[in-house]
Specification:
With about 350 residues, the chain is of the alpha+beta class. Helix content is about 20%, strand content about 30%. It folds into two domains: about 140 residues, 3-Layer(bba) Sandwich (YerB-like fold); about 130 residues, YerB-like fold (3-Layer(bba) Sandwich). Strands 3, 4, 5, 7, 8, 11, 17, 20, 21, 22 and 23 form an eleven-stranded mixed sheet that branches. Strands 12, 13, 14, 15, 16 and 24 form a six-stranded antiparallel sheet that branches. Strands 6-10-9 form a three-stranded antiparallel sheet. Pfam families: DUF3048, DUF3048_C.
Length: about 350
């Protein structure tokens, strides 16, 4: 009996040890699986720098010189080329109650930009806040005087039509002048302009501050200019950006059909004054005034100021990303509709 009891205990002990071993092996296997699937903190991507005009982190060089291009916004010039890669776009009235666009490129450059249009003195003034290489095709008398004075690095289609600037066969003048980024670089070499620059950073919100923006609901915003042109901005909650439209047509890139999407829309009131029979304007870009800042689906009624030649929020800041700045005549608040 004693021998049978000892044999039985030995069998139970062997089974128990085997079960424990299997359990430890399974735990080890599970541990290995968890360890393999769990990301290491050291694997998180780090960035060496930040683009000064978008606030977006990068490992690329950030010392490229800004390039400012006058872009046609007549309905016959749409859709335009290259606007989807602009860091900042200023939309400002020219004559004839039509707006033109000053597109500022720094973090990325499109292959082709246009249609390129003629300059006015206040567009040049805006470009100089970024020490930008200025690109246009034509000029007003005031703008010509500035550009020919040698104080602004620039190339113009009046001098390089058919060489640096090419005429497209799918549009008629003055809506068919285009330039490539490669030809802009060639132009900079021709006029001896520097191609690198160290730009000061625009004011940007931190990630935590971005989440705390408060204001009026502004998912759909429409601006109606005096001539009847309408500009629309529609907020996408998932992407946290505004999509732009002109006269109810989405603003897209002609070649790629990429829509224009923006983290910031800044609507700025400034004093406008017509100065000649052609309807050319003088615009006060230095005194500051009322503004509406659209971010994260809400509108903040704030002020704007000119800081070292740049139009920026007075008491606010931009969300990292691309920005569109609509400069409108004073008293146009009633022409901005939000819902």
């Amino acid at each position: 009996m004693k021998m049978m009891y000892m044999t039985l205990m030995s069998i139970i002990l062997l089974l128990t040890m085997s079960a424990c071993k299997d359990g430890k092996d399974k735990e080890a296997d599970i541990g290995k699986a968890v360890k393999t699937e769990t990301p290491h903190k050291n694997d998180e991507e780090t960035f060496s720098s930040v683009f000064p005009l978008t606030g977006i982190a990068t490992n690329e060089e950030t010392d490229k010189r800004a390039v400012a291009v006058m872009v046609n916004n007549h309905w016959k010039a749409r859709p335009q080329s290259g606007l989807h890669k602009a860091d900042i776009v200023y939309e400002v009235l020219a004559e004839g109650e039509l707006t033109r666009l000053l597109a500022i490129f720094q973090s990325e450059m499109p292959e082709k930009i246009g249609p390129v249009r003629s300059a006015r003195d206040y567009y040049i003034e805006l470009s100089q806040g970024y020490n930008a290489m200025f690109v246009a095709h034509g000029y007003s008398p005031e703008a010509k005087q500035i550009l020919k004075s040698g104080t602004v690095d620039n190339i113009n289609g009046m001098d390089y039509d058919g060489t640096l600037f090419k005429r497209a066969d799918f549009r008629k003048p003055p809506h068919n002048s285009y330039i490539t980024f490669e030809n802009i670089k060639k132009g900079m070499e021709k006029v001896g302009a520097k191609q690198t620059d160290k730009l000061d950073m625009l004011p940007f919100l931190t990630k935590s501050s971005t989440a705390n923006i408060v204001g009026k609901d502004a998912s759909e915003v429409t601006i109606t200019y005096p001539g009847g042109e309408t500009v629309g901005y529609t907020y996408n909650e998932n992407k946290k950006t505004y999509a732009r439209s002109s006269d109810n047509e989405p603003t897209i890139d002609r070649e790629t059909e990429t829509p224009i999407t923006l983290s910031n829309v800044f609507i700025v009131e400034a004093v406008h004054r017509v100065i000649d029979d052609a309807g050319r304007r003088e615009i006060n870009l230095t005194s500051g005034g009322d503004a509406i800042l659209l971010q994260n689906g809400v509108a903040q009624e704030i002020k704007w100021k000119n800081e070292n030649g740049r139009i920026v929020p007075d008491g606010g800041a931009f969300i990292p990303g691309k920005t569109w700045i609509n400069i409108v005549p004073s008293g146009m608040a009633n022409s901005v509709k939000m819902q």
